[in-house]
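tool_call: predict_structure(chain=1)
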Amino acid sequence: MGYKNEKTEESPDAHHRFFSFSNLHHYIVNDWPQIVLVAAIVTTIHYHTHWLHQIDRYAYVVIGHLSSLASSPRDSLAVVVAIDGETHKREYLERSPLNRCVLLSHLKEIYDSSPSIVVIDLDLSPALKPPESGGDDHGWGDIAKCEKALEEMIQAQTKAIPTILAGPFEEREVTARGWAGEMENAGVRFGNAKLPLEYGVVLTYYSHPTALAQVARASYCAHAADKRCGNALPGISRPFEEHKPMLNFQPSSSLAPKAISDGISTHQLGGKVVFLGATYGGDDRFLTPMDEKYGVELHALAFASTFERVIEHEKDYYNVSKLIVDLGWGLMFGYVIAWCWHRYFTFRLNISSPTNQLLAPWLIFRLLGLVVLGMLIFSYLSLLILENFGVWASPIPIAVGMLFESFVSGSVAQAIRVGRDLTRERSAARGEAEIQLEPGAGTGSDCLLVDSRSLCESFKRFVYLDFKCLWRRNKPAVYLLASRRLIWLILVLLSIVSTRSHGG
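tool_result:
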């Protein structure tokens, strides 16, 4: 094929025409191997390392939180009643385990407020041992009576107000087994109060039905005709370790802990799912992307999050869909980045304008700015995809990959294209004969410079036409090209295997 002796589209204002549908088509047709390669590498790294996963998780939570700020506030089903530091010091005298007589009084106030469900994020298993004969009981008899009364009240109240207790601590699990059996026989349910930590931060909640928030949700939906109960699947077949993102860490102001020291308000608890727990000390305090929260707050937030609209897919379908969305992000980021490099080299190689040459390096900052802006815009789009199709594919890892690729090879490709087009323009301006790039001439370097007009032609060139052209003109180059294409194929296959292996 040959290039005609005429002025190309890269003459004045060519950079404006570069950002057009025809050039988008040109970019897709000729640069799809790079897009696929970056998506494959990012997918593989995402499944086999932690740092991209960490970026992805933070993006998920922060974007979800920011999106919730724009929505109108809604009343939450849950209310947190907190045994705060002042109450712990003044009424419980900072003792552990908590004084059962005081706890009996506080829990009675909560039940008298007629909540729909009571969730107690405290270990209420018997922890006190009777004193040795002849020794001072330190009021053990009264406390033992309160402990028994507390158990009897919970058993009696759970018939009308479902009550869920946090499971005993691991060190008490064996000794408390008989007590737990008695409570369960009376209708009291238990939930696992464990919270997942990722990189020292709580980003998610456990989706297994034995988790505290899931038990609370199941109890609520069993007694309430609430259409929101159909928003999420119970996930009975999932392993306990599987997490679900806690999108909104502050979905409602009503989830702000109500300190017992401020008084228990009946109208605030009526008809609500009440979470009772401790908000003192540092043992049960966790870091979230927004701030530090106590365990009882996070269980209430997890409970609220279970009512968010959720679309669930089979893992194979989900992972393949995610890979397809990643390819879309790669296409959009790649085109914007290619446009920036095209502008850079158009300015940098313009020897007729020293001003443009000096301005060229500043275009690198515009490139970085556009990538950051693209990450923000595409992150919001990814949230819309999640809400409507149930697929979360963060654009941030792909943006990082495409930006890195642009500095390694993408910029070189644009430099070659701009340089080639400038040469064609100057030759046309001087009235020189057309530049021949016919097969059979030269050393074969031009075999890889010819642009394709369609995806079909580009695919043929990628699979065999490039090899055919080089074989006639520079046989050693064939082996180098074959090694490059083989590495490309291996990386793509590795990403597919990674996707399948993480599909369950």
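agent: Residues 78-305 form one domain. Proceeding to next step.
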